[in-house]
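Before a colleague's protein record goes any further, I have to sign it off. I want your independent view on whether this chain really folds as the tokens say. The record follows directly below this note.
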Amino acid sequence: FNNKVANQTIASTSGRTLALSGGGVEVQAGTLSISCPIDATANGFTKSGSGVLNIAGPMQVTYQPPNAWTFHQVSGIELSGTGSWTVANDFPVMNVVGTVTVNDNATLDWSSSVSGIALRDGETGVLVQNGGLVKGQPVSSGWGCCSGPGFILGSKPDYWGGTGESTAEYNLNGGILLVASIYNINRAWDTPPAPPNGSAVFRFNGGILRATQGDSTDPGAIKEACTNLMGNLSHAYVGLGGAKIDVASYSCGINQALEHDPALGNTPDGGLRAMSTGGPGTLALYKLSSFTGPLAIDANVSVVLGYTGDQRVAGVSIGGVDQ
């Protein structure tokens, strides 16, 4: 499919599906919006051109060959409204180059994939979540780092065909992010793990991070970066919207300092909320952080501090009661 006219919309008033038998959409300029259902199960899905593809309807994708490692460069795509992008087979890796944006009540579901979503390959990749739901690989079965890392921020140059340093960033501005772990893959299983080859940054700014598997919350038994919920990144910044980590389903550990976003200067950030939308849970913080906003702990949540040193925050509340 080749779109040469800027700012077009493809819709269906009868609910019919747009079948992409060749799997490709080219957007040369402007924005092409597709609000009807998309069937890209025949030959996967690719987008090319400097324009933006806006997916506002449901899209089902099966990459070829099925059940084999495949890597797919993705750039210049927005999901909006109730649009969705669901991957239907086990081994594809989304390689974000440029920008992918999730807005409104849209869903990006890569949870059937063994390796989820990567930002790597010697390029600059940014995934911006302003709302909706993003689902990475739900579990890690324990062999190396490829069994279920969820999101990979940055990469070793020669790993999975990467070509050099990567600049990788995830902006959690809204919505819910469901993922097993978030980490830089550059020798993440070493002790200590190697730093990112390039830059790997996660930005908390109002969205909710929710684990899809539990890990150790014992500071004496900290796991390597790829099996904690988060670890071994260049930075994890806390913005005005704050960091919100939901441990209702699984207790988990953050092996990463949560830093005040330097872009805010002396303006306090939104702090950290250790929250539960269901039953009791535990959040373990393994690194001394520098966020300056309040620390809020829900009534049925325990917070374990696995570090030495003091941190100044704007206030502490437990179960909504100031301490």
Remarks:
- Confidence is low (pLDDT under 50) at residues 141-150, 154-161.
